[in-house]
Design brief:
alpha+beta; two-stranded antiparallel ribbon; 4 strands
Length: about 100
Amino acid sequence: MAATFCLDCRRRIERGSRCRACERKRFPASPGRLRGARWQKLREEILAASGNRCANCGRAAIPLEIHHRDHDYTNNVTGNLIPLCKPCHARAALRPPYGAVTPE
């Protein structure tokens, strides 16, 4: 496997695009950002409510990611969070008018 390096500090990393230290600098703890057990509990509630299916394409039995409809990671209101498969989440991450469709 090819070596991967942090985009910011160029340290060698196992996966991802940034080391943990640089990731913490980019996304410092904020009052609205959920992490750890609180986020996992909310995530499981969202997945269970959807029947573990992608809200856009309906695929099941694949890893799902939680998408913030308004693209604000501090807005963790249940109505703002939807489960998406990785391909749908990548498309939804592109904000309109770039062709992204965020399911209602």
